[in-house]
């Protein structure tokens, strides 16, 4: 049984660690050596042996550590060390100094990353001594911790870590990814595929447009098709009763950017479209690209007077979806709730992509479960409710 005073001590430690973590400007894409060294030193001070994992593609590292016997099985608690940028403009306090404030009688902790997701990292670090103690002299299954990099720019860093699970690193039975869900278990999200489509025509003087091929006009046909196709997909994908668990309850297509032409008096040689498809996790994410490829091929072949447009489509980034299913990961959540005398909640889904989809794709069941609300993430005056941290520590202490 965890005593009230013990929990109070662990929560205070979590706030202290969170304050240190927030002070690191670990913005995605920048070197994360400082924050990784801080976490590694903390783990080493408890006699653990954290490993830096990187494929050398970046200056940043993931960190992995096992508490208990170093073997396959057990649960992996995973969180990212990177944050989205914060300039300080529009903030009521320095985003890199954890600032507690009372709002309507509740204590909120302000700082960039406090919610997404250094709060979760602080909670798991504060519980390290307790988890070590619980595993002394018994063969309780191990707990693994992962601290990843560059999650906010496409979940890039975790790939290096997943590649080592089951070879250089133990392979866990399940993963809890601590993204902010207000401690509700989430077992699904859509996949996200981003594409850059380039349309190439023939440039000429605008006084004789018929002698060229206008790439913007070509792109215009494609834009209309993207919009029409989005409607078709919406009505098709929303027929699945399972779709109702997602918000919005259908797959989506959206055009985000358009760049084309060089001057008003020049027929545009090139136009570039940036678009994305967010597919319900059981849908084939490549079907949208195939449709757009077929459409553009047909368009080019049917231009009058033998004129040609050249379309190329490049995958800019892909994040796999997380498919809802009864999994071992939910089992760990359920066990924590039961041990904490709480009724486990049914799973929900989230609207944002996470590393959980990547673990799931690698065959390791994953659940998203963490303190704080995603509504507080990424914006100015990001905060986490202190009570969320306390509740998170209380439940994690049951592992
Ligand atoms: Zn996050």
UniProtKB/TrEMBL annotation:
InterPro entries: AcOrn-deacetyl (IPR010169), ArgE/DapE_CS (IPR001261), Bact_exopeptidase_dim_dom (IPR036264), Peptidase_M20 (IPR002933), Peptidase_M20_dimer (IPR011650), Peptidase_M20A (IPR050072)
Keyword Hydrolase found: yes
Entry-linked PROSITE patterns: ARGE_DAPE_CPG2_2
Tagged with keyword Cytoplasm: yes
Molecular function GO labels: acetylornithine deacetylase activity; metal ion binding
Domain Peptidase M20 dimerisation: 188-298
Keywords tagged on the record: Amino-acid biosynthesis, Arginine biosynthesis, Cobalt, Cytoplasm, Hydrolase, Metal-binding, Zinc
GO terms, biological process: L-arginine biosynthetic process
Protein family (similarity comment): Belongs to the peptidase M20A family. ArgE subfamily.
PANTHER family, sorted: ACETYLORNITHINE DEACETYLASE (PTHR43808), N-ACETYL-L-CITRULLINE DEACETYLASE (PTHR43808:SF31)
Name under which the protein is recorded: Acetylornithine deacetylase (ArgE)
The species this protein was found in: Sediminispirochaeta smaragdinae (strain DSM 11293 / JCM 15392 / SEBR 4228) (Spirochaeta smaragdinae)
């Amino acid at each position: 049984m965890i005593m009230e005073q013990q929990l109070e001590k662990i929560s205070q430690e979590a706030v202290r660690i969170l304050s240190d973590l927030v002070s690191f400007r670990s913005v995605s894409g920048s070197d994360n050596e400082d924050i990784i060294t801080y976490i590694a030193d903390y783990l080493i001070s408890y006699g653990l042996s954290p490993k830096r994992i990187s494929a050398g593609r970046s200056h940043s590292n993931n960190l992995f550590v096992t508490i208990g016997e170093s073997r396959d099985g057990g649960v992996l608690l995973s969180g990212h060390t990177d944050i989205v940028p914060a300039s300080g403009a529009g903030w009521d306090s320095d985003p890199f100094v954890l600032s507690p404030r009372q709002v309507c009688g509740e204590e909120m902790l302000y700082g960039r990353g406090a919610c997404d997701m250094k709060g979760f990292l602080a909670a798991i670090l504060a519980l390290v001594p307790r988890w070590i103690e619980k595993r002394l002299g018994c063969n309780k299954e191990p707990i693994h911790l992962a601290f990843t990099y560059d999650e906010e720019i496409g979940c890039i860093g975790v790939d290096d870590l997943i590649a080592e699970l089951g070879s250089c690193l133990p392979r866990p039975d399940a993963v809890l990814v601590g993204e902010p869900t207000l401690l509700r278990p989430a077992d699904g999200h859509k996949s996200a595929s981003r594409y850059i489509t380039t349309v190439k025509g023939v440039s000429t003087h605008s006084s004789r447009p018929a002698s060229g091929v206008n790439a913007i006009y070509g792109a215009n046909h494609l834009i209309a098709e993207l919009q029409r196709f989005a409607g078709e997909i919406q009505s098709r994908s929303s027929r699945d009763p399972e779709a109702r668990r997602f918000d919005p309850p259908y797959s989506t297509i959206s055009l985000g950017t358009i760049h084309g032409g060089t001057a008003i008096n020049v027929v545009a040689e090139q136009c570039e479209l940036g678009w994305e498809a967010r597919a319900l996790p059981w849908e084939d994410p490549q079907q949208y690209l195939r449709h757009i490829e077929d459409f553009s091929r047909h368009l080019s072949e049917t231009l009058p007077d033998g004129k040609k447009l050249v379309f190329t489509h490049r995958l800019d980034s892909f994040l796999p979806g997380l498919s809802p299913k009864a999994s071992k990961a939910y089992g760990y959540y359920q066990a924590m709730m039961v041990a904490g005398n709480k009724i486990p909640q049914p799973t929900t889904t989230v609207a944002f992509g996470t590393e959980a989809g990547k673990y799931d794709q690698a065959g390791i069941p994953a659940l998203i479960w963490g303190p704080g609300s995603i509504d507080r993430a990424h914006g100015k005056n990001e905060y986490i409710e202190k009570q969320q941290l306390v509740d998170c520590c209380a439940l994690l202490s049951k592992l």
